[in-house]
Amino acid sequence: MSLTDIRDYLRQEQSASLKQIANHFKADSSLVESMLDHWILKGRVAAKQHDAFGSACCGKCGGMRHKRYEWIN
Description:
- Residues 2-70 form the Transcriptional regulator HTH-type FeoC domain.
- By secondary structure, the chain is α+β, with helices and mostly antiparallel strands.
- It contains three helices and three strands.
- Helix content is 44%, strand content 21%.
- The chain is globular and about 35 Å long.
């Protein structure tokens, strides 16, 4: 997995959670998160927090906040 792999994945998906990205690449979440920080610093990815139990929540998280990463075109 490289920085460009993450870029290409987010460009295709437009938005994904850290878990989705880590599962896609079968990589450790902390490694993926550090690589996402590179794109955030470049202004190409935005990390957005969503409240649990909001309209996009499945209710299985037990009240944790969700962070999604979105590619900025």
